[in-house]
From TrEMBL:
Its EC number is 2.4.-.-. This is Glycosyltransferase, group 2 family protein. GO terms for molecular function: glycosyltransferase activity. Keywords: Glycosyltransferase, Transferase. Residues 9-123 form the Glycosyltransferase 2-like domain. CDD domains: Glyco_tranf_GTA_type. It comes from Phocaeicola coprocola DSM 17136.
Amino acid sequence: MPNSTCKVSIIVPNYNYERYLKERINSILNQTYTDYELILLDDASTDNSAELLAKYKNHPKVSHVIINKENSGSPFKQWMKGILLAKGEWIWIAEADDSSKPNFLETCIEQIEKEENISFVYTGSNFMDQNSQILGGDFNKWNGRDKIKVATFPGKNLAEHNLYWRNTIINASAAVFSKNNALILQNEDFLEMKNCGDWLFWFRMALLGKVIEIYQNLNIYRHHQSQTKKGLATGRLWEELFPTILYMEKYLPTISKYKRKLCHASIYRQIRKTKNREIKRKLQAAYKKAFKSNPTLDYYFLKLNLHLSFIPWILTEDRDRLRKK
């Protein structure tokens, strides 16, 4: 068993990812930073994940191997289950199908120890496919930020200017966060979500302290294109997105009406691309109800804003985003 105290608790929440578990766990055990415990959780998988995880039960770094008899219904409930078990001051949710560079944890902790009142730190990500082949492309959308290596921002500012527009933390495996801050959120709405819970979690965490961005691709995120398409096609992703935006606006009442309308219209522009007419009509009605606005008029407002974006003082998402100066 690991020591009774440690700096970091690494939580691996798994559901039906038996084929990736060895790669994931090896990427953790090969970390250059070693002051951690490993918590392995399985949410009633229907493959052979439980049998594989049981093999690690007596590993000196493993403190818990817990197999649910029934599925919890939300990955974020598994997050909180692991957080409540954790001994560490810092938490790393290492998703079961992802991987990481060996210096991921060391780099994160090194930056955390340079600052005070840090809520979370996150790195950049490479994407890989289901065969662990690295995919090309600037998925982080840094636009040259990698030249400055690292930046620290007041969390409230980051929430208002970055996280309000989109979830800039590509996936949980890219972040290390404060256990104490996470425990404040143990009864929050994100626990009941299936798609947008992580976005809401990072937003609320940002309001509790500073955020560090590390401009290195130290996380390796396995992108399942079929899952993303399914969420968009069925409309489930959008149904959670509307209340998430409204939740953020409640916590940030200083956001201007102009900026809110731009954000809402950007969402509707994506909804317009939905091919299933029945789902599109359903989402249009949900949009009207949630934002109390005419989606078509909002869409043309966005088009006008984009047309005028050559003017330096016209607000755009990219201009609003915080950058280290």
